[in-house]
Amino acid sequence: MTETSSQTRSAVVDQRYVTQFREDGFTHVPNVLTPEEVAQYRAAALAEIERSGVVAGMGMKVGVTAVRITKDAFRNNDVLRGLARHPRVGAIAEQLSGISLRVWGGETLVKSPGDAAPTTWHDDLTLAPLDGRLLLNAWIALVDVPVERGCMTFIPGSHRRPEPFRAPLTAAQENPESYLFDTYPGLTWDRRVTVPLRAGDATFHQWRTGHTAGGNTSDADRVAFITTYTDAEATYRPHPGHQWADLEAGQLPPDEIYPRVADFA
């Protein structure tokens, strides 16, 4: 494994979180942000949603949701860029993974009251235009997210399921509601764990871990920010017909746009 940055070699969080992340494919770390940071980032997140938010699907023409999401907030919004490059969050991500990472993305997601439809069961790797040893998300709650507001549910250990390593993108596009269980039928019977969060908490999950999020039956917005990390040496792997204009197949993402955690943690 590639060495992590010098700061992340010391323990940022207790070893039990590292163990759960590696065995179950996810972990819940409380108090990743302070209350003051939560208030600052929530205000910026809601303002950016009002300015540039769009209703998003799962990506790559997979599924439909009513969740509003920003577009490249980690590049275009100074405050949210600071959250995507948050030293503590990045240091935790590197400690959990045990390898050097870079930021691949960072976006605000808002699920409105009355959006009772759950997010489709999925894994993130199926849609990922990357080749690397490990990809992971930090899902940071900017408000309290109890079950009624649409918190995340995971299938523990699903990142260690058998081949194929990735489900076919076409399967996800044609059957977004069932592709994960169609491709890996054994997951149908596996245990699920639902993880309510307090504002400032985060879940970290590997991109091969099956997960969903519940509907929002509460009377307030569910506001979260997702920072996406990749293996620092991961290369761009475009899906057919989905070539990004600023990257070429096999290219290492440029550090000035997709910064290494070692440069800010």
UniProtKB/TrEMBL annotation:
Key words, A-Z: Dioxygenase, Oxidoreductase
Keyword Transport applies: no
Coiled-coil segments on the chain, per record: none
Matches recorded under SUPFAM superfamilies: Clavaminate synthase-like (SSF51197)
Record flagged with keyword Transcription regulation: no
InterPro entries per UniProt: Phytyl_CoA_dOase-like
GO molecular function per UniProt: 2-oxoglutarate-dependent dioxygenase activity; iron ion binding
Name assigned to this protein: Phytanoyl-CoA dioxygenase
Natural source organism: Nocardia argentinensis
Organism ancestry: Bacteria, Bacillati, Actinomycetota, Actinomycetes, Mycobacteriales
